[in-house]
Structure formats: structure tokens, C-alpha cells
Write a structure and sequence with these properties.
This protein has a 6-stranded mixed β-sheet with strand order 2-1-6-5-4-3, covered by helices on one side. The protein has about 150 residues and is an alpha+beta fold. Helix content is about 40%, strand content about 40%.
Length: about 150
């Protein structure tokens, strides 16, 4: 009987042992994850093109705000970006924050978009981006607003 009690207590101790990390440390880890995800997103846009990157990092319910219009969902984004094969978009996140629960976050920073217009002239547009991210069931981050 004594061995059963020891086994039961050991199982309970091991299964109940859940390391609780400092919430501030967890948020710092999540912010770094989000910054790294944003950097990977930018790198993919430069390497494989905007359409590929946006579709790869978009959540199913993602929304883009472009020219005062909302492009809703991955199918809408795919259609909107059907010809967006440019590799001229680059950006770097300057800031990230994450909710205390670690399921939502946002980033912002500056972007530069270089493209050739219809006359063959290279144009450069610069601005500020703001992206809202949501943690997915597989623990990855996907954007829900851009």
C-alpha cells in the first residue's frame, strides 16, 4: 500500500508540476517571436514576391486595407494580389507588442516599395505599416489586419 501512495504522489507531483514563468518574460518572448515573424514575412516578400508572402502569412480571416477598400479573407487577398509578383517591397518592424494572453499582437515600422511604372520609370514609395497578428492553433503567428 505504501508503494502505491508513493507512486500516486509522484504521478501527481510530476503531472501537476507546471513551471509558471514570469509574465513579463513570456511577453518578451512573444514579442521577439512576433518581430521574427514580421522579418520572415518581409524576407519572403523580397525573395518570392508579395503575393506568395502575403498568402503565406495571412490568416484565413485576414483583411487588407488598400486604397480605402477592404480586401477580406485569403481568397480575396489572392484575387487582389493575382499580379503582385513584385519583389520590391521591403520593411522592418520597429515595434511589437503582445496581449497578456499571448494570442494577439501588433507590429509597426517603415516600408519601402520600389516598382516600375507604366512609362518604365522606377518609382519608390515609402510609408508606415501596421500589422495585427493572431496566434494560430499550431502556435504560429498569422496576420489578421494589414
Amino acid at each position: 500500500m505504501k508503494s502505491y501512495v508513493i507512486i500516486l504522489v509522484s504521478i501527481c507531483f510530476l503531472s501537476c508540476k507546471n513551471e509558471v514563468k514570469d509574465p513579463t518574460a513570456l511577453i518578451a518572448i512573444w514579442k521577439n517571436e512576433l518581430l521574427e515573424t514580421e522579418r520572415q514575412f518581409s524576407a519572403m516578400a523580397q525573395k518570392e514576391g508579395m503575393r506568395t508572402a502575403f498568402l503565406n502569412f495571412a490568416a484565413d480571416e485576414a483583411v487588407l486595407l488598400r486604397n480605402d477598400s477592404l480586401i477580406k479573407g485569403r481568397p480575396g487577398i489572392a484575387y487582389y494580389m493575382k499580379n503582385a509578383n513584385s519583389k520590391g517591397l521591403q520593411w522592418e518592424p520597429e515595434f511589437a507588442d503582445v496581449s497578456a494572453s499571448g494570442d494577439l499582437g501588433y507590429t509597426y515600422g517603415e516600408y519601402t516599395y520600389t516598382y516600375t511604372d507604366s512609362t518604365g520609370t522606377v518609382q519608390t514609395a515609402m510609408g508606415i505599416f501596421h500589422t495585427v497578428w493572431k496566434r494560430q492553433a499550431d502556435n504560429s503567428w498569422k496576420f489578421v489586419w494589414d
